[in-house]
Design goal:
The structure is a single chain. By secondary structure, the protein is α+β, with helices and mostly antiparallel strands. 41% of the residues lie in helices and 29% in strands. The chain is built from two helices and six strands, in the order H-H-E-E-E-E-E-E. It has helices at 2-13, 23-72, and strands at residues 82-90, 93-102, 104-106, 114-116, 125-134, 141-150. Strands 1-2-5-6 form a four-stranded antiparallel sheet, covered by helices on one side. Strands 3-4 form a two-stranded antiparallel sheet. The protein is rod-shaped and about 100 Å long.
């Protein structure tokens, strides 16, 4: 213990030539750093892409809720039948909204769903499909929701 104290005191009084890192130590640390960054970079890229996809999904859900809320405010028999395509800006991004209002809706997962638009008041309900797509071309589907609105007696 006493020898350790004497060594520290002698190093303080007579500083040696060790005032930095050698070239070899610097190169080894740079190699270790570059290997670590090379391994970590793909993980960061995957994380960034997943984060962007989740943000798009969250925006699409909010937009579809907004469209459905607007439809709920109107009388179901006054909602125009057929396909309506609108483009909306949300959170700095452009989304394309396909709204299908049908008397009877079939083949929902197809690129273009089959929509019976025979106007008749004998059907007190409307099948509604909201499909949110990326605004850029080609239009990639992000989110889709299907519901039925009916008038109460």
């Amino acid at each position: 213990m006493q020898n350790l104290g004497l060594k520290i005191i002698s190093l303080i009084r007579h500083p040696s030539a060790q005032k930095g890192f050698t070239l070899t130590e610097s190169l080894v640390s740079m190699i270790i750093l570059s290997i670590t960054l090379t391994i970590m970079f793909p993980a960061f890229m995957i994380f960034a892409m997943e984060n962007a996809d989740k943000r798009n999904m969250s925006d699409a859900i909010a937009l579809s809720n907004n469209v459905l809320d607007n439809l709920r405010r109107s009388r179901i028999t006054t909602v125009p039948l057929g396909n309506t395509i609108t483009t909306k800006e949300y959170s700095g991004k452009t989304y394309r909204i396909n709204q299908y209002v049908c008397v009877e809706l079939s083949n929902v997962n197809a690129t273009t769903p089959t929509c019976n638009t025979a106007s008749s008041n004998s059907y007190p309900s409307r099948d509604i499909l909201i499909r949110i797509e990326k605004g850029s071309s080609p239009h990639e589907k992000i989110y889709q929701v299907e519901t039925v609105f009916s008038s109460l007696r």
